[in-house]
Every structure is written in C-alpha cells, then in structure tokens.
Amino acid sequence: MLKFNIINKNKIFIGFCASLIIVFSTPSYAIDRARQAGFIPHKALYNIRLSAKSSSAKIANIRGKMFYEWQPSCDAWVSTNKFDMIYEYNEMPSMRVTSDFSTYESFDGKNFNFTSQRKRDGIIFEEVRGNVEKNDLSAPSNAIYKIPEDLVFELPSKTFFPMAHTLDVLKQLKEGKKFFKSTLFDGSDAQGPVDVNVFVIKKASYTPPKKYETDIDKDLVSGKAWKMRLAFFPLNISDSTSDYEMSLVFHENGVISDMKIDYSDFSVTQKLIAIEPIDDLCHEGTDGKNQKNDKRLKNK
C-alpha cells in the first residue's frame, strides 16, 4: 500500500496507493492482479494543510499539494507522487520543499525500482535510487541503493512492495479482518522497510465537497470504502512506539479520498480536490496483442 506519509519531521516522503517511468519487455503471461481486483488507473490531486500542533512544535504552518498517478504498464505497476509544500517556522524563514517519487513494481513481484528526489528552495538536498530483484519470492532479498552508494537493506521473505501491500489490505478487508500487520518496503527514503499495523474502524462513504465536485469523478469515489488506521514502525530501529500514524478512507478501487497523518507534535490532513481515470500504459489493441500507449497525462 502506498505510504502516503507526507512529512517525516522536516522531510517529505510517500506512499499508501517513478517521475522516471521504466518500461520493460512484455511477457505474454503477465497478469495484472490490481486490475483483476477492480483497481482503476487514475490521477489525483490532494490539498495538504496543518490540522493540529503541540505547543512545543517548531513548525508554525504547513500547506501545499500532492499529485498522485497510478497506472499499469505491460508488466508492472507504475506510480508517481509529486509534492509541492511550504513550511513555515516559528524561529526561522519559511521554505518550499518539492518532491518527486516514482516506483516500478512488476506484476510477478520479482522486480521493484524506485527513485526519489527532494529539493529545498530549488536545491536538491536528498536523492534516492535503487532496486530489488527477487529470484525466489519465498526467500529474503536485498534492496540495493545506487544513491546513496553502498546502502543495502535485507528484506524479510514476506516483505510487500506498495501495490502488493495494497492488494493484501483489500483481501483482508473483504475477508472481514479488523486487524492485520505486515512488512512494507516502498523505497521512498533511505530508512529501509517498515512494519505496518492496520486497524479497520468501519465501513465509510465519501461525498465530494461542493467546492470541488466538478473536478472529482464521482464514479471513482462512490463505491465501497473503509475507514482505517495505520501505524508505521521502522524495522531497523528498536522502538515500541510508532514513527507516525494515519487515518484514511480507502476505496475498493484503490482510491484514497481522505487522510490525516499524526506525528508526535503535529498533524496534517490530505484532502482530495480532483481525480479522474486515466488509460493504461499498455492496453489491449484491436489485433489482440498488447500495444504500448505512449500518452503521458499532465498534472491537472
């Protein structure tokens, strides 16, 4: 599941449902389990705002937007996240932080590529790039980073990549599970895998705010949905407390319509303000063969 973790203290980061799009050769046996499960390729825009803070918080205000796009290629799921944020502080100048994070996750779970770049007032201050290759899905594997160099994380055998995790969450929801946990690696930073505890609160529904209803495709947010709570624990740090937690509304078609992220000293909300379906990067042509769709949709 994409880890839509917007801010990790002073850095922006992703994930729950890359700017580099990687297209590989297409095996005829590639099966898109996400489309089979009813997930709909889409692009969405979210408004991000500070919703609460403690008296000890150094931050004065947070505001910005996040663009998210997900779609299948011929043998993998491709996702792109773009953040444009303004941070205002009590005792220092405000700053603009932009972030691009992209992933390529093969349908068979054997290949995962990730790339991320963050800029502070236009200057790169963090960059991440790497990949995971699995020959045996039942065995541990390594996340090997090209940037930063010489960084490697061992991933337990049952580690999920983002879309596989989202599919597992949907499976657990449909089975009526109220609590479940798993290990997730999304490559959004240099911190390695995390343990994710999921608490299902109740079934939910979503009504677009009047201000944005013309920009929100109602068919994408009218289906079955659940409100849930997620807690994230860094796997490589021995700590009984979660790094952060989030509440969200998750739809069975893969859309997230509302989110709140809680940190130790502040909270932010992420509200959907625009969403529309998009084409697959690879679709069924009239001759019955997979055809590449070179169309690239621009940010709304």
Descriptive overview:
The strands form three sheets. The chain has a 15-stranded mixed β-sheet. Strands 1-2 form a two-stranded antiparallel sheet. It has a two-stranded antiparallel ribbon with strand order 18-19. It is built from two helices and 19 strands. The chain has one domain (7-292). Strand 3 and strand 4 form a beta hairpin. The chain has helices spanning 33-36, 162-174; strands spanning 7-8, 11-12, 42-53, 59-72, 76-89, 95-106, 111-120, 123-133, 141-147, 152-155, 159-160, 179-184, 194-204, 225-234, 244-251, 256-262, 266-277, 282-284, 290-292. The protein is mostly beta strands. The longest helix is centred in the middle third of the chain and has 13 residues, at 162-174. Residues 2-29 and 284-300 have low confidence and may be disordered.
State the main characteristics:
single chain; 300 residues; mainly beta; 15-stranded mixed β-sheet; two-stranded antiparallel ribbon; 2 helices; disordered N terminus
What is the fold's blueprint, element by element?
Blueprint: E1 7-8, E2 11-12, H1 33-36, E3 42-53, E4 59-72, E5 76-89, E6 95-106, E7 111-120, E8 123-133, E9 141-147, E10 152-155, E11 159-160, H2 162-174, E12 179-184, E13 194-204, E14 225-234, E15 244-251, E16 256-262, E17 266-277, E18 282-284, E19 290-292
